[in-house]
Amino acid sequence: MKTDRVTLIQGDGIGPEITAATLEVIEAAGVKINWEKVEAGQDVIAEQGTPLPDSVIQSLKKNGTGLKGPLTTPVGSGFRSINVTLRQELTLFANLRPVKSLPGVSSLFRDIDLVIVRENTEDLYSGVEHMVGSDAAESIKIITRRASERIARFAFDYALKYGRKKVTAVHKANILKLSDGLFLDSVRLVAKEYPRIEFNDVIVDNAAMQLVINPHQFDLLVAPNLYGDILSDLCAGLIGGLGLAPGINIGEKVSLFEPVHGSAPDIAGKDLANPTAMILSAIFMLHHLGEGNAADRIEKALAEHYKEGKLLTADLGGNTGTRKMASALAERIAKMG
Ligand code: NAI
Q1: Predicted structure pTM score
Q2: Residue 162 is among the residues annotated as catalytic for this protein
Q3: Taking residues 133-158, what's their average pLDDT?
Q4: Domains along the chain?
């Protein structure tokens, strides 16, 4: 039996709680993973002088696959975002954020099944910022043809592979004529190579409204970094909240699986976090590792869990703790045999 080696970053805030829950569920599905646990985030700064020690990058480069909890980036000055740095250092150029309704979860809409493909390396997240005197600041938005075509090609290839029929480019090219104009031109050019996939584009503010009014019109949205980030939280809200939204960072050599949400300091350490987003991220990881059978069983257990609707975490109106939810899922999986 093969054992996969995977880098594990449990993260800050609710990270350790949802990671423990996810590992319990994976173990119950009978998958043996050789975890390489590495530390990053707030707690390692004092010891290592950085929230992102080089050992983390090296481990991910070596193993090619990682599972990650959220990492805190304090607002204001200090260290650069660890998440942004990780994505740039490892050229994790595509951030795939599937948004799928879970049956039984009460939410604004039913039967949502769309995907956001977010460019993950540039835009305003390039981190090029400076003060102009003491009363003005400039942040540079960087958009390149290379990264825009790369994310467009990824989006269309994904659509072809997974039977998505329509790709929508999100932009603000009416105002940001050069940067978003270049993004839109690049996606339009790539779209011509995929005549079987319907293509349209929508301005980001309209996209936000359309998503709230009629999300079913969308199938796959491809967006520059910032719009993709914002719209994926919005989409998580459509299906019941951030506790249910998984994510995958994909590069040529490394794939890093992590929930969309952050470290949720308001509920950290209280056994209140919903582990579903991280468990769903792990399901995608198991497929990636060729453990489709285990992934399917965990997915089935989650579906049954939510259909039954009894043991819900606080974000969904229940009073079940993270640990109890994990053990209920593990038990359900074990019973499936
Ligand atoms: P957040 O996503 O951590 O929390 C937003 C709201 O959603 C909070 O009310 C929180 O309690 C709730 N929430 C999030 N995940 C939940 C879960 N699994 N179960 C139940 N409720 C959940 O966003 P916020 O507060 O803006 O960011 C906190 C920190 O996380 C910041 O330092 C931010 O930079 C970082 N962050 C890290 C990310 C990552 O590591 N990929 C992504 C987003 C934010």
Answers
A1: 0.96
A2: no
A3: 98
A4: 1-92+244-337 (3.40.718.10), 108-239 (3.40.718.10)
